[in-house]
Amino acid sequence: MRYSEQQVNSELLDQPEFHGEPNKIFICSTPRSGSYMLCRYMINADLGIPHEYFNPINIRQIAPRLGLGASVQRIKWRRRTPLDRLPFGKAARAAEMSFLGEYIAALIPRRCPRGIFAAKIHFDQYLKVLDNPVGRQLLDGGLFIYLYREDLLKQAISTHFAKTTGRWGIDDTAVTIPASRPDFFNVAMIDRTLEELAEQDRGWRVFLGRNSLPAMFNSYENLCRNPADFVAAIASRVGIDPSSLREGYSEADASHAEDPAIPSKSEVLRHYLAFNQRVHPADIKPPTLRAQPMPTKIQGVG
Q1: What percent of the chain has pLDDT over 90?
Q2: Domain count, the chain
Q3: How far apart are CA 92 and CA 76, in angstroms?
Q4: CATH number for the domain that contains residue 20
Q5: What domain range is 104 assigned to?
Q6: Number of separate helices (H) and strands (E) present in the chain
Q7: How, if at all, do strands 143-148 and 216-219 pair?
Q8: Averaged pLDDT for residues 113-138
């Protein structure tokens, strides 16, 4: 079944309560890198129920049915700043970690088929939600899968479309607020998105390198060619016999109708390239990259 994000957020895929220490799989991804496609293949193969469990939007939807509806409303989830050293900053961080511990304890027992807990995490979600002692304890001992996209420009345009429309999933549901004045051909916005994606990719590479984690690497393009083979390789790494996985799921023919009011991504790509070709190299200023917080080294992860 081609599950939507909202279906995975719901109780639809909840499992009989699991007791014990699960095998953990963490998909380290960036937007539009094929991570949800990998999640759907894993779910249909009965290899965990990977999902963006640590996306603040999803946390607010999942927490109430875990009995944490009141406490989640008090959590803001923001990146670390120098203000964290002040008393009120420390209190906010303590509240986040307390909630996160309760959330993890309630979530994992419901999402562990075969004793496997799997999650996909964008780097900004790691910085906001998991870059703390509770998050590092969760990550400890996990198998890490690093997904990236070989064509960064196509990834940036796809992300730009998702931000503009609010549509991030396989259907037409807007899960974030759409742009009030959509501009699909905005070259400057695409450039900023491209830089942000490159920064997030760098963040994951530093995280994996700093912790010397033997991650499984795969590109979006390669994943599209052989998704079932990659799922089988993941199963082998966590001690599951690949021959025991469910077979038959495919997204090769899955598609949805194009919105006639929205230009195609190929049109935007051509416009972007044509604009850049009109600019003389001497007129192009090097991008100004914002300082990206780097994750704390995690002792014992791997």
Answers
A1: 72
A2: 1
A3: 8
A4: 3.40.50.300
A5: 5-151+204-249
A6: 12, 4
A7: parallel
A8: 96
